[in-house]
Write a structure and sequence with these properties.
The structure holds two protein chains of two kinds. By secondary structure, chain A is mainly α. Chain A has one domain. Helices cover 53% and strands 12% of the residues of chain A. In chain A, the strands form three sheets. Chain A has a two-stranded parallel ribbon with strand order 1-2. In chain A, a hairpin with a 2-residue loop joins β5 and β6. The radius of gyration of chain A is 19 Å and the shape is globular. The relative contact order of chain A is 0.14. By secondary structure, chain B is α+β, with helices and mostly antiparallel strands. Chain B has one domain. In chain B, the strands form five sheets. Chain B has a four-stranded mixed sheet with strand order 3-2-12-11, with helices on one face. Chain B has a three-stranded antiparallel sheet with strand order 5-10-9. A three-stranded antiparallel sheet of chain B has the order 6-7-8. Chain B is globular. In chain B, 34% of the residues are buried. The chains are: A mainly alpha, B alpha+beta. β2 of chain A pairs antiparallel with β13 of chain B, so a sheet runs across the interface.
Chain lengths: 219, 184
């Protein structure tokens, strides 16, 4: 599910190139982020056959984020997901209603009026963006980012419209650095990651840093 | 957003003031609104709610609040105006309707509901762009909290990659894993 103001036009070619076989959605107003309080991508939510949440929103797949590079640790997340698909409520990864209530209540207490106003402001900006009213889109996206600086979705959707990819990456990496130096994290760790994920991610990043510049494969 | 919105509203106001000054004065004395509450017959406002964009053909002119018909209230946020109040399932916010009140007024023999006033009553955040009369509302906190705390997954409808509308609730009877991503 794409949290993408660009809509189908931007998202469809990526789905087609990936050859997806699952239900592939596009969410230009970030509606699902509003309803489930998502602040980053990728995040995952598991819902059972009755429409009940069995794992509330959490970071999916990613093990570690370091200054512009993402280390993907899909194995642990995928294994947990397969376990739940096979065993349902008996899976150790399906949370009990009480565990879910605790997580959700904690999240709700963290949320405040600023976060809620930021949500309204972001969708107002997205509305103007879709209508081609750049000045108003910028005004309300700036407001959203001021009100809730913890939402990476707001920052990154906004920065994706900077004139060059270099500027986008520059804003992103400097923000990640700023947050890291303040003791914050880009991705809050989930409990599904492999205990070795951090070490694996560090190695993967080292390998990536040592490797020559990545080339597009020949067509 | 058409620039004509403001112009049309101003024109409507001027016409109304010229024709009905005495009557308006009498209504205003009793009501919570200022003198400027003639219905806007031009596409008056737009309301955003998570997953919805609602164009409003008529609203009362008021710089501070969004007054819509009771039917439009339901289009925006599913609340229904009943004799006992504005209700969403079992939740009802009392609304006095036998005389003008903070949430409800009669103008030109029709009832008008204060959607932003209801939002304040519910602690629901909103942001208003006055120049284009666009109102963006966050989810209703008590509704969001009750669905999340009961672990009910809030429903939504989005387009899939082929442009087909898909609702989360269409997937009842199957397990669903939602995973978000983005091109940015």
């Amino acid at each position: 599910m794409a949290q993408d103001t660009g809509g189908l036009e931007v998202v469809r070619p990526i789905y087609e190139k990936a050859g997806v076989t699952f239900t592939a959605l596009v969410d230009p107003q970030h509606t699902v982020s509003s309803l489930y309080r998502l602040v980053n991508v990728p995040m995952g939510i598991w819902i059972d056959e009755q429409g009940n949440i069995v794992r509330p929103p959490e970071v999916a797949y990613v093990a570690k984020m370091a200054l512009g590079s993402v280390a993907v640790d899909g194995e642990a997340y995928t294994a947990a997901l397969r376990d739940w698909v096979a065993k349902g409520a008996e899976s150790e990864f399906a949370l009990t209603p009480e565990e879910i209530r605790q997580r959700v209540t904690t999240a709700r207490h963290d949320a405040d009026t600023f976060v809620e106003r930021a949500d309204a402001a972001f969708r107002l900006g997205a509305h103007f963006k879709a209508a081609g009213d750049e000045a108003r889109a910028n005004r309300y996206w700036d407001l959203a980012q001021e009100l809730n600086p913890d939402s990476w979705n707001y920052h990154r959707q906004d920065w994706s419209f900077l004139p060059t990819m270099a500027e986008t990456m520059q804003r992103f990496t400097s923000k990640v650095r700023e947050v890291s130096e303040g003791g914050g994290v880009y991705y809050a760790p989930n409990e599904l990651s492999n205990p070795d994920a951090e070490e694996n991610a560090r190695r993967a990043l080292e390998r990536a840093a040592a490797a020559p510049e990545r080339q597009e494969p020949p067509r | 957003m058409p620039k004509s919105t403001l112009t049309a509203r101003d024109a409507g106001l001027r016409a109304c003031r010229a024709v009905l000054p005495a009557l308006l004065g009498a209504i205003v004395a009793a009501g919570p609104l200022g003198a400027q509450n003639a219905p806007n017959l031009e596409p008056a406002a737009t309301a955003l709610y998570p997953g919805r964009t609602v164009e409003l053909a008529e609203v009362l002119a008021d710089p501070n609040d969004l007054w819509t018909t009771p039917e439009d209230l339901t289009r925006i946020n599913d609340f229904v105006l009943k004799p006992e109040g504005a209700c969403l399932d079992d939740l009802c916010v009392p609304v006095r309707q036998d005389e003008d009140s903070e949430l409800f007024v009669r103008r030109q023999e029709r009832g008008w509901f204060n959607v932003s006033g209801l939002a304040r009553r519910l602690g629901q955040a909103y942001v208003h762009d006055p120049e284009t009369e666009t109102w963006s509302f966050a989810a209703v906190p008590v509704v969001l909290a009750s669905t999340l705390e009961s672990a009910r997954a809030p429903d939504f409808e989005l387009l899939d990659k082929d442009g087909v509308r898909r609702r989360l609730s269409d997937f009842r009877g199957r397990k669903v894993a939602i995973v978000t991503w983005a091109s940015w």
